[in-house]
Specification:
Blueprint: E1 14-17, E2 21-24, E3 46-48, H1 54-74, H2 95-101, H3 110-115, H4 120-129, E4 156-158, E5 163-165
Parallel strand pairs: 1-3
Antiparallel strand pairs: 1-2, 4-5
Helix pairs in contact: 1-4
Length: about 170
């Protein structure tokens, strides 16, 4: 974890990793700028540790979802994901949303999550509903479609302004 965090280049409030541990690295309730000027209204920015260990990922992901839900509720943020096209649309946003509608080139967390069997739809559902016996942490033991990569299931890519169609 210590190799992945650089506090001089961002203001992230929390990092989740090492088996579901929440590290408070900044003060919540102020401006978070881990996504640059896209976050002038964000009281929280949470980063998720990248791991290739499925068991570690499961613990981290569960904590990530639960902590994100708790933080959103604390600040009156709707439990919706990547809605709208304006910074004034309330809800939880990803770096990919920031890239598509504000600036930047980050596409996380979708590529990483897809490698671990979590689709964008599953992430949105988990953020909205949390976990129950009927909704386990992950549902797939294999990678799912990464919405940031072109392929048969995702033939159209966009950066928010430009569109590309991939013919198979």
């Amino acid at each position: 974890m210590k190799n992945n965090y650089n506090g001089s280049n961002s203001y992230t409030t929390d990092v989740i990793g090492d088996g579901g541990i929440v590290y408070r690295v900044g003060e919540q309730g102020y401006v978070s700028w881990g996504a640059g000027n896209a976050n002038p209204y964000a009281p929280v920015q949470i980063e998720l540790q990248r791991t290739y260990d499925k068991a570690l990922f499961e613990k981290n992901y569960r904590a990530y979802i639960e902590y994100t839900r708790d933080s959103a509720k604390k600040y009156g943020i709707p439990l919706t994901l990547d809605q709208g096209t304006s910074l004034f649309t309330k809800g939880i946003i990803s770096h990919l949303w920031v890239t598509n509608y504000v600036w930047g080139n980050h596409t996380d967390p979708y590529g990483y999550l897809s490698q671990m069997g979590v689709s964008k739809e599953k992430l949105a559902y988990d953020l909205a509903h949390g976990f129950t016996d009927e909704n386990p942490t992950t549902s797939e033991n294999k990678p799912v479609i990464d919405p940031t990569r072109a392929g048969a299931a995702n033939p159209t890519l966009t950066d928010g302004t430009n569109y590309a169609h991939i013919d198979q």
